[in-house]
From TrEMBL:
Residues 12-55 form the Small zinc finger protein HVO-2753-like zinc-binding pocket domain. It comes from Salinirubellus salinus. This is Zinc finger domain-containing protein. InterPro entries: HVO_2753-like, HVO_2753-like_euryarch, HVO_2753-like_ZBP. Signal peptide: none annotated.
Amino acid sequence: MSESQQHATRQCVSCGINISGTNAARFKCPDCGNLIFRCSTCRKQSNLYECDDCGFTGP
């Protein structure tokens, strides 16, 4: 997915909510470098996430 497409579809990778304009985290996947977005609720609850590109999972 291109960076422009990721900006258009900013969704939490854990719960799927639209995170545009919220206090969300943005970071690169430790394995492949794909950009990952997580909402503050999923971060606080340590919900699992999975990278869409490589399948890496993390807390």
